[in-house]
## 1
Amino acid sequence: MYRSHVLVCGGTGCTSSGSQQIMEALKAEIEKNGLTEEVSVVQTGCHGLCALGPIMIIYPDATFYSMVKVEDIPEIVSEHLLKGRVVTRLLYNETVTPSGNVKALIDTDFYKKQHRIALRNCGIINPEVIEEYIGTGGYEALGKVLTEMTPDDVIQCLLDSGLRGRGGGGFPTGLKWKLAKQNDADQKYVCCNADEGDPGAFMDRSVLEGDPHAVLEAMAIAGYAIGASQGYIYVRAEYPIAVERLKIAIAQAREMELLGNNIFGSDFSFDIDLRLGAGAFVCGEETALMTSIEGNRGEPRPRPPFPAQKGLFGKPTILNNVETYANIPQIILHGAQWFASMGTEKSKGTKVFALGGKIHNTGLVEIPMGTTLREVIEEIGGGIPGGKKFKAAQTGGPSGGCIPAEHFDIPIDYDNLISIGSMMGSGGLIVMDEDDCMVDIAKFFLEFTVEESCGKCTPCRVGTKRMLEILTKITKGQATMEDLDKLEELCYYIKDNSLCGLGQTAPNPVLSTLRYFRDEYEAHIKEKRCPAGVCKALLSYRIDADKCRGCTLCARNCPNNAISGTVRNPHVIDQDKCIKCGACMEKCKFGAIYKK
Amino acid sequence: MASKKEHVPFSGTPEQEAALKKVIAELKDTKGALMPIMQQAQEIYGYLPIEVQTMISDETGIPLEKIYGVSTFYSQFALQPKGKYQISVCLGTACYVKGSGAIFSKLEELLGITNGECTPDGRFSLDSCRCVGACGLAPVMMINDEVYGRLTPDDVPGILAKYK
C-alpha cells in the first residue's frame, strides 16, 4: 500500500513539454528521501489541459500542479510528500479560490461541464498496465457479452443507444454492425481507424495513449457481434507513443487470454494486429484505408459494394473510429438507456473536441452533445487571449467549415453542424479571432486538399487545384467578381461528382466562408484590401506621423532599408522598397506603425 | 542560395541487406505485407532508394512498379536520404493560426532550403508536417524526436545553433 500516488501525464502534449524528465527527477528525488515504499509514481495518459503541461496530480487529495519544471521537483517532494504542505505557487490557478482555498478540479470551469466517457480512464490509469484497466471495470463488458448476450443482443443494444460514428460521418454504429452480420462469409474483419489525419484533432491519439485496452475490448465485442475472428488497427506512424502502447496492450491482452482462442472459455476467438499508416490523409476514408491495409496505394474505391458486403480482402468488414470504440464497453455495461439519456434527439452521448488556436485552454474536452459553442469557447475554453474579438470556430478540419459568432448559441450535434454548413468531423475545434483572414484560411485548407488528393478521380484532382488557383488570385488582389462566381460553381461541381469523402467535402471550407464572410472575399477583389491584414500582397505598412517620435529603431531594423527619416522627426516607409516583413511594426515602441 | 542535395549514390552494407532479407522472410506470408516490409526497410536504410525497392521486389516477387507506386503514394516513404537532423514544422490548423508559417519561413531563410530539401552538407533537412498532436504547445516544430513548442521566429537561430 502506498500512502500517496503521484500521477504524471505521459500524453504527447506533456511529453513534448518535458514530462519524461520530470518523472525521472521525481523518482530519483523520492528515492533520495527514502519514500519509495510510501509514494508511487504513475505515468498516465492525457488530462486534457495540454496548454498547462506538464501536469502532475498528487493523490489522495488530487492536488493539481501545472507547468511543473524539473527544478520544482525537490520542493514538491520535501514540501508536499514529506511535510504534507501544498506548493501553492504551482497549483493550477483555477483551483485556487480568491480567499486562498483550494477547490476540486471538477469544479473548475474547464472540467465542470465535461462528461468523460471515451476519456474516462485517460489521466487516471497507467495505460501500460492491464491490471489498472481491469481494476476500473475493464474487460467486464467483453465478459458480459460473451456469457450473457447473443450477437443480436449486442447489436440491438448499440442501436438503442443511438451511438453514431465519431470519425465524422455520424453513421449509426449499430446499423453498420447489423449489415455486416447479415452477410455470411467464411471470414469477416473488424477494423479500427486510428489514422487521425485531420490537422488539429488529437482525441484518438489521447485515447490510444491513455486507454488502449478500451479499444481492444470494444473490437473484440464487435468481432463477437458480427462473427469476425480478426481485427486490424490502422494507426498513424506519426504517433509513436500510441503505437508503442498499443503493442504493449495487445501483448498483455494475449498473455491474459483476453485476445486469442476461446476467450473467457467460450468458443469465441479473436485476435488483433497493428498496421501503420504512412502519411496519406485519404486513408482516413474507409475504402482507402482497407486498400492500404492490403498493401496497395491507398486509393478509395467506388461504393457499392459497401465494406459490410465486400471490404478488406474482399470480405465483409466493419470499420469504426477509435473514439466510437472507446464508448462501447461503457454502453454494454451501463445499458443503452443510460447512453441515450445524454445528448440531443438525434445525437446521443458525448463528443470529444480538441480545442486549439486562439483560445486560453487548448486541450481535449469531452462534452455532452448539445452543449453550445458559447459554453465550449467562453466557459470551458476560457475565452480568447489578448482581448481579441472572436471571428469563427472551425470544425471538421479540411472537410468542415467556419462557424461565425451568430451561431454561438447553437447546440453542437451532427445535424446542427451540417445545417450551418460545417460538420462534426473528428472533433477538431480551432478558434479564430479578428486577426485571421477567412480567405487565407480557405486557401490554407485547399492547399491541404490539393496535396492530399489521391488523384484517382478528376473532379477532386483537377477541381481542387483550380479552386486553389482562384483563391491564390483573390489573396493577391488579382481576381475579378467573375472568378468568385466560378469558384462557387466549382465547389458544387466537386461536391457532387467526387468519388470519396475527401473530394465531396473539400469545397466546404470555401462554401462556409463564402456563406458567412462574403464581404471579406469582396474586399479582396473589389477594394484590393485584406480586412484582417494577413494577405501580404494587399498590405502596406505606414507610419503615423503624429505618434512617431523619430527614435530610428524601425529604420535600423528594416532588412531592406525601406525606411528613411532623421532623429526626432517622423519616419517614412518607401512602399516600393518595403518587402512587408513586419519587422518595423514589431519593434516600434510607440505603436506608430500600422497595417493598411 | 545553396542548392538542394541531389542524387546520392547508394551505399548499402551487407549487414543492412541481411537485415532486410530477415524482415522479408518473417513477413512474406502475412496478408498485405508490402507496407510493413517497406516501413522496416526504411528503418534499416533511412530511405527507400530504387536499389532497396528492387531487392524487395526480387525477394517477394511483387512487381517493382507496384512497390514504386506505393513508395511514391505515401508521404512517409523517402526516395532521397534525409538530413542528419530532420526538422519538421507543424503546419496543421492549430499551429498555422498561431503563426507556424513564419517559423517555417525563418527556417527556409536560415538554412537556404525549402520543403522536402536537405542542406548540401547533409546536416539538416526541412519538411512541413500535419499535426503532431501537441496543439497545446502551438506553434510546434520537431528536430528528430525533440519537440520545440510555443515558438517565435526569434527562437529559431538559437535552437539551430544547438545542432551545429
Note: The longest helix of chain A spans residues 458-475.
## 2
Amino acid sequence: METTSPVERLLRGIAITLVCLFFMFPIVWIVLMSFQTNETILRVPPSVIFVPTLENYTALITGKLETQAGTLDIDFMGNLWNSLFLSTTSVAIGLILGVPAAYAFARLKFRGSEDIAFTLLSFRFAPPLLVLLPLTIYFQQLGLANTYGGLIWVYQLIVLPLILWIVRGYFEDIPADIEYAYRIAGHDFWSTFRRIALPLAGPGIAAAGLLSFIFAWNNFVFALVLASADKQPVTVGALAFVTASGIQYGQVAAGIVLSIAPTFALALYAQRYLVEGLSLGAVKG
Amino acid sequence: MTIQLSLKSVDKFYGPIGKGVHAVKAIDMQVPKGDIIALLGSSGCGKTSTLRMIAGFEAVSRGTIELAGKQVQTLPPVRRNVAMAFEGYSLYPTVTVRDNIAFALKASRLAEAEVARRVGHVADMLEITDILDRFPFSISGGQQQRASLARALVRDADLHLLDEPMGQLEPQLRTLLRGRIKHYIKERGLTAILVTHDQTEANALADRIAVMEGGVLQQYGSPAEIKERPANLFTGTFVGEPPMNVFAATASVSGGTLTFDLTGGLDLRYAESAFDPRVRKMVLDRKQVMIGVRPYAVHRAEQGAAARVVANQWLGDQSHIAASFAGKTIVLVEHDRAHLTEGEPIKVEIKPQDLHIFDPASGLALSHGNELAA
C-alpha cells in the first residue's frame, strides 16, 4: 500500500469536494427550485432558505397548471409516459436488431462489412435537422407522422449505431476460441451465441442499452417535428411551461426532476453490470 | 489398421482460392486409429490452420477430410465429434474449472457420478485437483492450460486435437505430464493430433511426426525415420538438436578413393569400397551434392579433416563444440566434458554410414549412409 501524508489527503478531499460541487450544483439547485414557488425562485438575492411546497408536483401530476392568466391544462404525465414508452421500445428494438448485427460485424468477415458498419455510424455524424425535413414529408405521405411507430423508427437513427458499435467492440474482445470450444463440445451456432457470446458481452450490451436509452430519452428535435401533443415526450412537453404569462420556473424544475428520475434510476441499477464487465478483462491471456 | 482420419489434397487459402494467402498446400495424410500424431513446424508453417480445418473452424478451400469413415469437411464443428485443447486455453470464464472440464460430458447426458469420476481422474493426472473449484481468471497460465487440456482429454471423441498443449508448463511438470498424457491416450485408444514446435515433445509423445514448412507437408513418419532418413534438407536441419551440419561438396574418385571436395579447400576422403555401389554411382553421377551429418556423428580423431575450435559449451550432460571447418562451422556433440579452448586445432572424422546426401537444387534426400533414399 502507498502511504499518503495527511496534507495530501486533505488537498485531495478539497479537490474532490470542488469537483462534486461543480457537477452537482445545477442538479441540487433544480431540486431546490422544484419545491419553491415562482416568487421565491425569482427573489433577489437568491436564498436557499424557503418554505418548501409541493404545489409544483401536484400541478404536474394532476395536469392543472395554475397561472396568473388562469388554469392551463398540461399533460405532463402523458409526456412522461410517452418518453418512457418511446425510449424503452426504441432501445428494445435497437437491441434486438443491433446485437446480432454487432456479432456479425465482429465475427464474420463478409464483403462490405466495414462499409455497412461505417454507414450506420455515419448516421451519428449527420445533424438530425438535415434529415428531418425530407423525413417529415415522407412520413406525412406514408401516414407515419405522429405515430409511435414512426417515432420509434426514427429513434433507431440514434439508438442503433450506438448499440452496434459499442457491442461490436465487446464481441471482438471475446476470444473466438471460447466460442469454438463451446461449439466443438457439441453445441450449434445459435446456442453458442446465446450461452457464450451474449453473456460474455452482457456488460457491453447493458452499457450500450443504458447509453442509447439516455440518448433516446433526451432526444428533442425528432419528436418536436414528427409528433403532436399526444405523442410528445417530456423533452418537447416541457415547452408548455413557457406560457403567455411567463415561465413557470418551479414547474419546469419539478418537471426536470421527474424526467431525470427514470434515467437516473436506470443508471444506478445498471451500474453494477457495467462494473462487472471490468473483471472480464482478467480472462484473456 | 483402420484409418481414423484421412486428409486428401487439402488446401487452405485465406482469401479467394488461387489468389489469397496459400497457407496449406495439398496436404495428404492418413492417421491410423489409436495413433498420436505431432504436427511439427515453425510459426506460420500451416500446422494450426490444418488443425483448425480438421476441427471445422476454418473452411477447407480444396480437398477432403474423412474422419471415422465419413467426409466431414463441410460439416459444422458440432457434428464432427472432435475434442480440442486450444493454445489460448479458451476456458469459459463464467464457470469453475470443474464445470469447464465437465461441460461436454454433461451435455452428452452422462450420469453425474460418471462425470465426477472422469473429471476427478483427468484432474488427478494433470495435477489440477486442488484448483477444480476456482474460476479460470484466478489461476495461472499453466493451470489454465492444463484445465483446457483436461477439458479436451476427458471427452470421448473420434479425434483429439491438442494445439500446443504444454507450452506454458514448467519443464519438470512438462516431462512428467508428457508421460502421463501419452499413457492416458494410449490406454483409452484415443486418436490424437498434437501441434507443437517443440521437437522433444513431438519425439516423446508421437507415434508419427508430420513436419510442415511453408504450408507443405515435408515428411510424415516415425520419430526414428525422421531422424535417420530425413526426406529433404529442411527436415534434416529442422529436426534434431543441435541441427545437422550441411556442406556443399564436389565428389570425385581416383585410385580407389572417393573424395568429397568441400568448398573452402577441405576434403573428406573415403575408401571407395566403404560405399554401397549404388550410392557411389549416384554420388559420382551427380558430382555436386550437399552432404549433411548429425553433430552426434562427428567425432574427434587422430586422423581426419582439420578444424579449429571456435566455441565449447558444456551443457551439464554433453558438450557442444563448434569448430570452423571448410569455411563454415561444424558442430559436434560429445558426452563427456571436452577440454578444448578456443582456437585449438582438432581433427574430425565422419563415418561414411553417417553421411546424408541431398540434391543441392531441390533439397531432396538422395541417400542416407549406405542406402539410397526412396
Note: The mean pLDDT of chain B is 91.
